[in-house]
Amino acid sequence: MPVKKKKKSVVKKNSVIKKKKTVKARKAAAARPKKTAGRAKAKAAAPELGLEKVGEVTHYFPKVKAAAVLVLKDGLKPGDSVYIKGHTTNFKQTLTSMQLEHIPIQEAKKAQEIGVLVKSRVRIGDIVYKI
Fold first, then answer.
1. Which of 90, 98, 119, 130 lies most in the core, judged by the most C-beta atoms within 10 Å?
2. C-beta separation of 123 from 73 below 8 A
3. Does domain 38-130 have CATH number 2.40.30.10?
4. pTM here?
């Protein structure tokens, strides 16, 4: 009975060349600047309307529909109209309730983190503008 010879695995030249091209492509992609214009446009849209940035959302509590807002400028009071803008968030509302450590307050000062009732879901990083 004749003995069958095993075939040796042959490395194709084309596959080696393809690997070298992918390495070059990766290096070229790493050298290109990253695209971040989409996020910058969303944040820059409201100042064009002449609105003043007064805070930023740091947390959202879905059961009570409340947001924790870090105040960046003085003068936020209940009854003020605010515009909340983010990647998927975009609405206006009047502040009805503001609390600092579970105690209702009449005015928020700079660097305070306050709780605010909101009418819609907000996300961390959304910007709060005063109208």
1. 98
2. no
3. yes
4. 0.64
